[in-house]
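Our preliminary data section would be incomplete without showing what the modeling component actually yields. Below, a chain of 87 amino acids is followed by its predicted structure, encoded as tokens that our downstream tools consume directly.
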Amino acid sequence: MSQLTLNLNLQPTRKAWTVSELTAKIRDLLAKSFTDITVQGEISNCRERSPATSISRCKDDRAQVRWRLFQAAAARHQVPSRRRPCK
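Predicted structure:
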């Protein structure tokens, strides 16, 4: 009688992602899923990081999103002056 060996890997090896791999994957997934969106909410915590960049949060009563707004993008999307991004 022959013996049959069966190896079951119930806990497969998990891939250790680098930070660059993870952020690239997230960026790709978001870019494919959100091609043209409009976000409505309250803008808060605005801070100018450089003459061409500001950082703020857009929030509603249940969630918030932190984002970086570049001057060139603001001009394309008709965002009010970056000198007063929160008003």
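The two ends are 82 Å apart (CA to CA). The longest helix spans residues 19-33. Preliminary results of this kind motivate Aim 1 of the renewal.
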